[in-house]
Amino acid sequence: MGSMLVRARRVVVALCLLLGAPGCYLANPLGPKAALDSTFVLAPNETATIVDTPLRIRFIGVSGDSRCPADAICIQGGDAIVRIEALTFGAGSKQYELHTGNMKPVQHEAFTIELLQLSPYPFSSKTILPDEYRAALRVSR
Predict the structure, then answer these.
(1) Which of 49, 66, 80, 88 has the smallest CB count inside 10 Å?
(2) From CA 80, how far away is CA 66, in angstroms rounded?
(3) Distance of CA 18 to CAs 6, 10, 45, 83, Å?
(4) In which element (H, E) is residue 5 found?
């Protein structure tokens, strides 16, 4: 079942690229739908539609991960930078950076966007590939 979803997602992306539809990456029909104040998880380049709002959130990716590996002893906990894009229909889009080091939410118009967790957590013996990251997020008013 999982491989079927991956293939379906690839077909959608290929059609978007072939048709050149503007903003097509945000029209991913396979992305999750999430209610306000609920937790949702996104993979890189995946978009969530926030139900009953004009808002969509896209997880762009991680642009730096200096978190202390779970199997190491560090003086500081480190930080990972999670890049997202918020799109509000009629108002355009804006990119934000969320940090695991302080977990401070960002404000997009009337919405608060929080990073709840970034996984996987690093180990010194394994490199995390960019497409392996998952961001747990929550949107509230």
Answers:
(1) 66
(2) 6
(3) 18, 12, 18, 26
(4) helix 2-19
Query: Per the structure block, which two tokens stand in for 10?
Result: 């690839």
| Residue carrying structure tokens 């190491």 | 72
Give the residue-averaged pLDDT of 50-76: 93
What is the CATH classification number for the domain harbouring 115?
2.60.98
What is the span of the domain harbouring residue 4?
A: 1-28
Please report the DSSP string for 9-29 in residue order: HHHHHHHHHHHT-TTGGG--T
**Chain-wide mean pLDDT for the chain?**
84
pLDDT at 71 over 60: yes
Q: How many structural domains are present in the chain?
A: 2
Verify that 79 and 13 share a domain, yes or no.
Answer: no
Q: What are phi and psi of 88, to 5 degrees?
A: -115, 120
- Per-residue pLDDT at 30: 56
pLDDT tens string 2-54? 444 445 555 544 444 444 344 444 444 458 999 999 999 999 999 999 999 99
